[in-house]
Automatic annotation (TrEMBL):
It comes from Mycolicibacterium fluoranthenivorans. GO terms for molecular function: amidase activity. It comes from the Bacteria. Keywords: Hydrolase. InterPro entries: Amidase (IPR000120), Amidase_dom (IPR023631), AS_sf (IPR036928). The keyword Hydrolase applies. It is an enzyme of class 3 (hydrolase). This is amidase. Pfam families: Amidase (PF01425).
Length: 467
């Protein structure tokens, strides 16, 4: 049954369609694992057991009748910045408003494909940080080493997937928030092209930086998610075909303005990836994207700060936010509408400069992160700016793709000395998800990762302590 829990969305969909597994049994497997594992990991903010059971039973009726939908009966976890009808969207805080009356568009599409919504996953307050710890809901732990964070802001989604607590999970990515937890949780995560997967009713989140996408066990799972939520891309087919011979640029350059040092394990992962890619027949060269000086402080960070400020203005109880979040939002409030309009107007020129590397290459390869994640509680007594400086040094390679809007994916690659997964990042040209999926699947075939299991321990759902 453990093998089934880790099989992933595409395999679950096949098993359900073949009737070798029932939708209620698959859901109960996950609910049982959540009850015994999640008390220590805290990947879910809320588990929707009753409604999920009803949805699974209804899905089974449809399966028995011969109906076929891509995700019919497949349990999906939803990040808690995304509306699910009848549930609050908490944003990692007690400052939230009443329950949502309608599903977000991406949830509607998942339901239309037959998905069973199993719960809402934990996030840092207002999705600000690449660690997932809040005053309201506590800390989410990395299943690979529970002394450490799983990343963020889709940290709950990453932890749930790593621990085998859902078939696939929805995340959102404004400064790396899909790719960071995917990196440190041993998952394939992809930030699609901006606007590929709908963010409605929260369009233009963080001044256009945010994209929705999957955290998945396999490339095929991620492709299935994208086919369902972004029709017309034919992503499953892309993941199933060979990528051909690609010209790939490898870069360890950190965008100017970020102080970061790439660790030895992360450098070794990139070197191993280069060797594998050459063995697979690709041409790999050393070349850095042309990052404009000042792009981080003059462009990315203002959109980030102002985006958080705008989100906070929508909350009915902002006084309940922790002091660090309030400070972050205040900084965003100092940025005028005129300043933000000028920043957004500058985006095409910045994107054209950064993306010019794709005139000569098909993919850019970088480390997935500069280091491993922080220990739980590492930033509890720090303010907004000092926390930001420290976390940016861990994950300097993500934000640029949010500025340009281009797709990027992370591929699992070994473990660091703390037993925590690492990754390599594949940056694609605009709307180039198909190439990333095809290349990712080729790497996965040559160097599989989905069979790996974190050393999670189980606890009794009723008795404190380890069982």
């Amino acid at each position: 049954m453990s093998d089934i829990a880790f099989a992933g969305a595409a395999e679950h969909a096949r098993m359900l369609a073949a009737r070798t597994l029932s939708a209620p049994d698959l859901l109960e497997l996950f609910l049982d694992r959540i009850a015994h594992i999640d008390p220590e990991i805290r990947s879910y903010r809320v588990v929707l057991a009753d409604s999920a059971r009803s949805e699974a039973a209804a899905a089974q009726v449809r399966l028995d009748a011969g109906e076929r939908l891509p995700l019919l009966g497949v349990p999906v976890a939803i990040k808690d910045d995304t509306d699910v009808a009848g549930e609050v969207t908490a944003y990692g805080s007690s400052a939230h408003g009443p329950a949502a009356t309608e599903d977000a568009e991406v949830v509607r599409r998942l339901r239309a494909a037959g998905a069973v919504i199993v719960g809402k996953t934990a996030v840092p307050e207002m999705m600000i940080w690449p660690f997932t710890e809040t005053l309201s809901y506590g800390a989410t732990h990395n299943p690979w080493n529970t002394d450490f964070a799983p990343g963020g802001s889709s940290g709950g989604s990453g932890a749930a997937m790593a621990a085998g607590l859902a078939s696939i999970a929805l995340g959102s990515d404004g400064m790396g928030s899909i790719r960071v937890p995917s990196t440190w949780c041993g998952l394939f995560g992809i930030k699609p092209q901006r606007d590929r997967v709908p963010t409605a009713p929260h369009e233009n989140a963080w001044c256009g930086l945010v994209a929705n996408g999957p955290l998945a066990r396999t490339v095929a799972d991620a492709a299935l998610f994208l086919d369902v939520t972004a029709p017309g891309g034919d992503f499953v087919a892309a993941a199933a075909r060979a990528p051909g011979r690609l010209r790939i640029a490898v870069s360890l350059k950190v965008p100017p303005g970020v102080t970061a040092r790439v660790g030895a394990p992360q450098r070794a992962a990139v070197a191993e990836a280069v060797g594998l890619l050459r063995d697979l027949g690709h041409e790999v060269i050393e070349r850095d994207p042309d990052y404009p000086v000042g792009v981080v402080y003059g462009h990315a960070l203002p959109r980030y700060f102002r985006g958080v400020h705008d989100d906070v203005q929508m909350l009915p109880h902002p006084e309940r936010l922790d002091s660090r979040t309030r400070a972050f939002a205040r900084i965003g409030g100092l940025l005028s509408e005129r300043r933000m309009a000028a920043i957004r107007a500058a985006e095409p020129a910045i994107a054209a400069r950064v993306l010019s590397i794709f005139d000569d290459v098909d993919v850019v390869l970088t480390p997935g992160a500069a280091t491993g994640p922080s220990r739980i509680g590492a930033y509890q007594r720090r303010g907004a700016i000092s926390t930001l400086a420290l976390v940016a040094a861990r994950v300097p390679f993500q934000a640029m793709c949010n500025v340009t809007g281009q797709p990027a994916a992370v591929v699992p690659w070994g473990l660091d000395p703390h037993g925590i997964p690492m990754s390599i990042q594949l940056m694609g040209r605009p709307s180039g998800e198909a190439t990333l999926l095809s290349l990712g699947a080729q790497i996965e075939s040559a160097r599989p990762w989905a069979h790996r299991r974190p050393p999670v321990r189980t606890v009794s759902p009723t008795t404190p302590g380890w069982a």
